[in-house]
Amino acid sequence: MALSISQRLGWRASSGFVGRDIELATLRALLHPGGPLVVYVHGMGGIGKSSLVAAFARQLTAEGHVVLTLDCRAIEPTERGLLEELAAALGAREPTLAALVRHLDAGARPLVLALDAYESFRLLDTWLRQVFIPALPEHVRLILAGREAPLLAWFTADGWHGLFRSLTLGPLPEPDALALATQSGLAPEQAARINRFARGHPLALRLALAAGISSPELPGGAAVLQKVLEQLTRLYLEQVPDRSTRRALQAASVTRRTTRGLLQTLLPDADPDDAFERLRALPFIELGRDGLLLHDVVRQALAADLQASDPATYRAYRQAAWAHLRAELVSAARPELWRYTADMLYLLEHPAVREVFFPSDSQWFAIELAAPEDWAAIAPIVLQHNGPENARLIGTWWQQLPRSFQVVRDDRREVIAFSCLFEHSDARPAHLQADPITRVWEEHLRRHPVAARERVLFHRHWLSRDHGEGPCPEQAAIFLDIKRLYMELRPQLRRIYVLKPTLPAYTQSLRVLGFGELPEATAHIDGVAYGTMMLDFGHESIDGWLGGLVGAQLAAQTPAVVVLDVEGHELLVDGQRVTLTQLELGVMRYLVDRAGQAVPRGDLLEDVWGYSYEGASNVVDVVIATLRKKLGPRAAVIETVPRVGYRFRLP
């Protein structure tokens, strides 16, 4: 039952929206006097959240209301990112909250602000709830649309009762599902057969129609809809008649977004413009601001299928995408940095890394700035798990830097965990010296300084009331908030110091993320030794660090002939270990982190040796020569780039 061209055009023209009268009425309550300030629409992938928001926006616009819809996937998930986006969209003079509020105050008509793909904005949830939304003029209303349910704080925080409404989006009722299917020209009996296994899920209907599937043999029901979507995606791919479109789909499935440049790199023997247009015509792909976006559910199913059926091609696509993105990142302007950060995050697959950036247990808790009365709850937590002297020291930081404390609350608004994290520059030297832990961190930083513009974080402490340092949802919420701070401080963030975890599994997870142990930075409190781990992000800050993590992960997955063991100060060449000096390690790591890029000699001197290149020194060439000697038959992996410097090529 393949779709004709007219049916495909009819499907696209319909915009994939029917019914949802009850849900539209719930959204319309935003305009009623005494109605909610925020409606949070949530549901599984492909259920129609974006279509609902778009349909409501069309209704309001036709009635003369002002609606602004933002796609959170394309915006840096920081206060700065959202404010800059809003300032550009509204024509405000400055990207500050105060300037935006003044601009909105001058508007005469109500404004509905819709944040779609809100799951991408989890990092901003607390700030939006506590700072941004309360600052807005009374005539502004918000729609938040995402996959995950609202955080607990939306229901329990003071003042939100009656002003927040959660709207769960489920499958379409059968009459609406049949109407959606027949919009493309299908006969009612054909639509009914398709809906037997799609069960009213809009994306499942769309995939079944696109693949020309009429058999009701797939499993049905909400509990297995995810498996239905995966199977439909595979069936659709089998129905694609031409090899070029299939290859383009598979290549696009390994990256967060698809651009012509990426397609040219991933498919060097194909016309990138042709591949781009083939993808753009598909019913589950949309053109976003920074490229083509496959629907997440389809993309994940395609990638999983490719990884299982052809792991070599899957790995090659990811390696090529990584090298392409790293090369583009070098010349990216600051407003574009988030795109590449998000791209690198998407390429990460190591469980220890993904759990830090995408915690699986944090969705029910939000972390927020501690209130003055919260010390009464924090002090007993420290006393219980770390003793009286540590409680006294943490109390000193509470007095000196109260805004460095964040807390996690339960459904009764009680503090169940806390974190103390601050910038080194915010603390007075005397206070750093008074605490044995920050004293050893300060001494290490003095011996190994950073550049004036670079910023350093001290994560002095975190604890859960019930779990101490143990794994728990509260911990995941705290780690998620640290990721938010990483994003806010890029590209100046250079280093973070943390206490060495007492659990070996945590220590290993930190090592995977690039943290190293500092044996010389050990402090003693109440007779207990507290070790230190430190992560130096490098001169490229967060983006360079992420690129290095992905590169290391890809190298570990590849039967490579040359592997750099940073912790062991060794090269693994065809299975044989070769010891490196500190300088050789620094040069090799610098080249490997920028695999495929031409690295100037001056950059190596400035970033590895630590002083500016004046054009006369040959120390770089000497180290390269010794590295090539140690690489032996694999010396060709370090290429000479005439009149520039050197380049490392992935074997």
Structure at a glance:
It is built from 28 helices and 22 strands. With 651 residues, the protein is an alpha+beta fold.
Strand count: 22
Report the principal-axis shape.
Answer: globular
Give the integer mean of the pLDDT values: 85
CATH superfamily of the largest domain: Gcn5-related N-acetyltransferase (GNAT)
The CATH class of the largest domain is Alpha Beta
- Unreliable stretches: 1-15, 218-223
Instruction: Estimate percent helicity.
Output: 40-55%
Characterize the largest beta sheet: strand count, sense, and whether it forms a barrel: 7 strands, mixed
* Strands ordered across the widest β-sheet: 8-9-10-11-12-16-13
Would you give an account of this structure?
This protein is of the alpha+beta class and 651 residues long. The protein folds into five domains: 149 residues, Rossmann fold; 66 residues, no CATH class; 105 residues; 170 residues, Gcn5-related N-acetyltransferase (GNAT) (Aminopeptidase, 3-Layer(aba) Sandwich); 90 residues, Orthogonal Bundle (Arc Repressor Mutant, subunit A). Helix content is 47%, strand content 16%. Strands 8-9-10-11-12-16-13 form a seven-stranded mixed β-sheet, sandwiched between helices. The radius of gyration is 27 Å and the shape is globular.
